[in-house]
């Protein structure tokens, strides 16, 4: 044994020289971690002892750690000096807290509750998976407890169905990162995914659609097939399978929250029960008729079976994105509005949610719903999941309701992780790992007592574009690690630098667990921000690589391994083309070249008059957006792209002085899925006095609207005149959204 220890510490020393001496890159970061001298060496005969209260955690450890032998644990409730792994119970109120002590002779997991014992066990498993030699653990002391009680992940099993085995693999990973809530979006137009014994048609028909590809199906006839038909695509969990999943998750300290969506996103229900549509016909609307009592009777019967499968205190009823058009024309809905003295269709939706809340409450459960459940008045015991930004969550918390934060800009894992041209098609948006990590679920707008209503945070994986389990893993990892740390580690203890360091160790774990994670790309992002004090652009070059060797030029030439090395942000005057590339490790060559023409142009900081208003939903930086010297990224939601919905874009820029104008350029985005199109043409005209304008110079669009992938394209014109006023008009001939980021004047 002694010889082995010497040998092990020699290995550790070797690593100390090569990289880091010990591998303690636990995610999420524990509240405190002290590394001590020495190692604990696991062997085939290392015994596992457990207090009888923690039998399940000990058994799970024995099952999950391929190294612990014998494959059984022994009951024992006190510590001892016999070499082994001990699960020990100690009195305490915080059931999620745990301590993990690793010394050369014993490993102790000490907790007061089962969940703490499981967390300690998962930390121990992580520690093993992080070591190049899994049998040799560094000595340390961890004392740990979560920042938030709710740490969740939502899987959309409706748009694409994932097998119970796939869900179990995700549950294993959630447990490893101490997430404790798995929200299953079980029902939506694209398929009903849970057996309901009273209504077999829901799974006989509504669980199957005519096309595998969601986009083709959605843009096509949106019809359902029947189970067993040759082309039927879909699936569902039997009640037995769902109960097994609930048990599997509970053993890993994870609660499964079922979502049975209503009143919107319910096309599949009305395909089976057309009488629940205002029209009485299938395939006519997405929202259920709330004037019809049968809607409530059917959903309450469904929820009785759901509550029998899922012991979760929270039952999610959806509540999002219900259209109101059918209700406006429906005699039954209008009669309900009159009978219940409701003001409008928003209050009708609220009536429906309140009725479901009463029902769930009477059965001892809590209603959870998307933030639309606030509209028309929130049901008394409801908990709100804030997804349209944080405003719904803030409003609910101020009104004394509990809140789960899941804002689209930080928590939607269906968004792109890198430049869309390098990625499989996604729904849109741009959510790199660093942005997930940057999120703090407690908004500054809340005072101390309101902030207590923020129970935690959740990532949502909407699956329209995610047909396989491999692709699902790709969208979830490693972003889930960042989310897990946001949920577990106190905000003041979070550090991106530390997370990045630990992530380098976590790649080994992800590989050992056979996870198809997103690999950090070699592509670089160049950002320039106008600095009006310096009259220059401040350029930052962003890489996902660890300690990257970035080379750049500012004269338009292609960067090579001998070009200037980027070490910190730098200023560029006027305009310059910055090009940057990564020196690829182990190759003496550079990766893909990123290029940005910096834009400290003549209109930075100018006054912008809107002849037609910008979209209230996408104001970006309001009047400053188009002249703030900052270009947008790949997402129209990034705060740099300003939207114009249905109308044209029509603005007049007033420069500080009469200036020589050589050329003008403005970029637009096209992403047809959410209805974002190029303008038909862009016109530029100019004036010295703001009254008499030149004849417009028109630039027509050359991007076909049939291109459904992201396109960003500048519309530019040479001017060659003196002007103080510049009018830019962009024709919104598709009547969708126009998005522009910057009007550059040189
Ligand atoms: C949602 O993304 N519609 C909740």
Descriptive account of the structure:
The protein is an alpha/beta fold and 746 residues long. The protein folds into 4 domains: 124 residues, Chitobiase/beta-hexosaminidase domain 2-like (Chitobiase, domain 2, 2-Layer Sandwich), CATH 3.30.379.10; 363 residues, TIM Barrel (Alpha-Beta Barrel), CATH 3.20.20; 74 residues, Immunoglobulin-like; 139 residues, Jelly Rolls, CATH 2.60.120. Helix content is 26%, strand content 27%. The protein is built from 19 helices and 33 strands. The strands form 7 sheets. Strands 8-9-14-15-16-17-18-19 form an 8-stranded parallel barrel, surrounded by 6 helices. Strands 1-7-5-6-4-2-3 form a 7-stranded mixed sheet. α2 packs parallel to α3 and α4 runs parallel beside α7. Acetamide (ACM) binds next to loops.
The end-to-end distance, rounded to whole angstroms, is 74 Å
CATH superfamily of the largest domain: Glycosidases
Oligomeric grouping of the chains: single chain
Number of strands: 33
Largest sheet: 8 strands, parallel, barrel
Whole-number average pLDDT? 93
Bound ligands: acetamide
Q: Residue share in helices?
A: 25-40%
Low-confidence stretches: 1-20
* Strand content bin: 25-35%
What is the correct CATH architecture of the largest domain?
Answer: Alpha-Beta Barrel
- What CATH calls the topology of the largest domain is TIM Barrel
SSE-based structural type = alpha/beta
């Amino acid at each position: 044994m002694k010889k082995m220890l010497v040998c092990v510490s020699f290995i550790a020393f070797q690593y100390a020289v090569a990289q880091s001496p010990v591998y303690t890159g636990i995610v999420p970061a524990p509240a405190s971690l002290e590394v001590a001298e020495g190692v604990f060496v696991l062997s085939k005969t290392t015994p596992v002892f457990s207090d009888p209260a923690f039998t399940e955690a000990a058994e799970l450890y024995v099952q999950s750690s391929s190294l612990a032998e014998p494959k059984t644990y022994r009951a024992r409730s006190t510590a001892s000096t016999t070499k082994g792994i001990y699960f020990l119970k100690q009195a305490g109120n915080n059931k999620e807290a745990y301590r993990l002590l690793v010394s050369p002779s014993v490993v102790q997991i000490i907790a007061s509750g089962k969940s703490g014992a499981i967390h300690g066990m998962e930390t121990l498993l992580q520690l093993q998976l992080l070591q190049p030699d899994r049998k040799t653990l560094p000595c340390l002391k961890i004392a740990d407890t979560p920042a938030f009680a709710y740490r969740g992940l939502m899987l959309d099993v409706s748009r694409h169905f994932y097998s119970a085995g796939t869900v179990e693999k995700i549950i294993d990973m959630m447990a490893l990162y101490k997430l404790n809530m798995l929200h299953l979006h079980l029902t939506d137009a694209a398929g009903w995914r849970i057996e309901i014994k009273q209504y077999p048609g829901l799974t006989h028909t509504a669980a199957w659609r005519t096309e595998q590809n969601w986009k083709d199906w959605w843009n096509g006839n949106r019809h359902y097939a029947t189970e067993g038909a040759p082309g039927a695509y879909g699936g569902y969990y039997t009640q037995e399978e769902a109960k097994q999943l609930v048990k599997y998750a509970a053993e890993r300290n994870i609660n499964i929250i079922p979502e049975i969506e209503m009143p919107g996103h319910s096309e599949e229900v009305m395909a089976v029960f057309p009488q629940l549509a205002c029209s009485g016909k299938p395939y006519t609307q997405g929202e259920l008729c709330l004037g019809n009592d049968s809607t409530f009777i059917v959903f309450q019967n469904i929820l009785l079976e759901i509550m029998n499968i899922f012991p979760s205190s929270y039952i999610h009823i959806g509540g999002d994105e219900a259209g109101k058009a059918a209700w406006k024309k429906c005699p039954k809905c209008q009669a309900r509005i009159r009978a219940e003295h409701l003001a409008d269709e928003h209050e009708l939706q609220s009536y429906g949610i309140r009725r479901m809340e009463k029902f769930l409450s009477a059965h001892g459960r809590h209603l959870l719903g998307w933030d639309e459940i606030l509209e028309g008045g929130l049901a008394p015991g409801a908990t709100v999941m804030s997804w349209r930004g944080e405003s719904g969550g803030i409003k609910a918390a101020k009104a004394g309701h509990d809140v789960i934060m899941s804002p689209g800009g930080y928590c939607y894992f269906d968004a792109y992780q890198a430049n869309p041209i390098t990625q499989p098609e996604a729904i849109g948006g741009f959510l790199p790992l660093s942005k997930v990590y940057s999120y703090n679920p407690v908004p500054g707008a809340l005072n101390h007592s309101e902030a207590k209503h923020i129970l935690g945070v959740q990532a949502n994986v909407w699956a329209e574009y995610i047909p396989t389990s491999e692709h699902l893993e790709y969208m979830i990892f490693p972003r889930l690690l960042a989310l897990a740390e946001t949920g577990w580690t106190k905000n003041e203890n979070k550090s991106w630098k530390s997370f990045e360091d630990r992530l380098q160790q976590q790649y080994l774990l992800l590989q050992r667990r056979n996870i198809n994670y997103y690999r950090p790309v070699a592509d670089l992002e160049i950002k320039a921000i106008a600095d009006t004090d310096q009259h220059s652009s401040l350029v930052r070059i962003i890489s996902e690589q660890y300690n990257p060797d970035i080379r750049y030029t500012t004269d338009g030439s292609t960067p090579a391994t001998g070009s200037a090395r980027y070490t910190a942000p730098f200023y560029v005057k006027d305009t310059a083309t910055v090009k940057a590339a990564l020196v690829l490790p182990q190759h003496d060559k550079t990766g893909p070249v990123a290029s940005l023409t910096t834009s400290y142009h003549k209109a930075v900081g100018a006054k912008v008059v809107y002849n037609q208003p910008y979209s209230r939903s996408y104001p970006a930086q309001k009047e400053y957006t188009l002249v703030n010297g900052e270009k947008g990224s790949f997402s129209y939601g990034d705060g740099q792209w300003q939207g114009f919905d249905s109308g044209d874009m029509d603005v007049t820029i007033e420069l500080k002085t009469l200036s020589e104008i050589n050329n003008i350029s403005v970029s637009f985005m096209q992403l047809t899925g959410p209805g974002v199109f190029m303008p038909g043409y862009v016109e530029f005209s100019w004036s010295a006095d703001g009254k008499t304008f030149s004849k417009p110079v028109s630039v027509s669009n050359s991007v076909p609207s049939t291109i459904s992938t992201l396109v960003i394209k500048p519309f530019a014109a040479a001017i060659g005149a003196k002007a103080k006023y510049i009018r830019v008009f962009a024709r919104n001939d598709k009547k969708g959204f126009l998005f522009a980021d910057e009007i550059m004047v040189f």
